[in-house]
Write a structure and sequence with these properties.
Shape: globular
Low-confidence stretches: 9-38
Radius of gyration: 16 Å
Largest sheet: 8 strands, antiparallel, barrel
Structural class: alpha+beta
CATH topology: Lipocalin
CATH class: Mainly Beta
Mean pLDDT: 82
Length: 155
């Protein structure tokens, strides 16, 4: 018995993979050199460990895994369930000055994407060890506070 994967999921995964490759290729050519590479503390891979949306605690970090990949110029996050099925994703360019993050979602999948597509989102950012907290109000008016934990390299 063969399990057929829905066309929409295959398409979403293909698009996500292509966008990751493109972002990596584009950022590698224009990555800052020397000291500038470590100045942006956001660069790396992060896992969502807690979240509040609209003043309510989200159960999402307990139900699924959300990873955010940040290059010097772009970000992309993806949420997948215990079976590895992608349920949401989003990404685009961003600017970060050390305390304020301005991101513009340009591509995505999921019900949350369409209302913010192409609209700049503004967040306050704080670091505490290997954790990063971002808080602000989305362009839709929904308040957001997310805590991300750096995913360390496994040797």
């Amino acid at each position: 018995m063969t399990r057929q994967i829905p066309y929409s999921l295959v398409t979403a995964l293909a698009v996500t993979t292509c966008l990751l490759i493109l972002a990596a290729h584009n950022s590698a050519a224009s990555e800052p050199k020397g000291e500038a590479t470590t100045a942006n503390r956001l660069v790396g891979t992060w896992k969502l460990v807690s979240a509040n949306y609209g003043g309510r605690e989200s159960t999402l970090p307990k139900e699924a895994t959300t990873l955010k990949h940040v290059t010097p110029m772009h970000y992309m996050w993806v949420t997948f369930d215990k079976d590895g099925q992608v349920t949401r994703t989003q990404g685009g360019p961003y600017m970060f000055d050390g305390g304020v993050l301005k991101s513009t979602p340009e591509y995505g999948l999921g019900r949350e994407f369409e209302p913010i597509k192409g609209k700049q989102q503004l967040f306050k950012v704080k670091f505490d060890g290997n954790r990063w907290t971002q808080s602000g109000t989305l362009s839709t008016g929904t308040t957001l506070e997310e805590v991300w934990e750096r995913v360390e390299n496994r040797k």
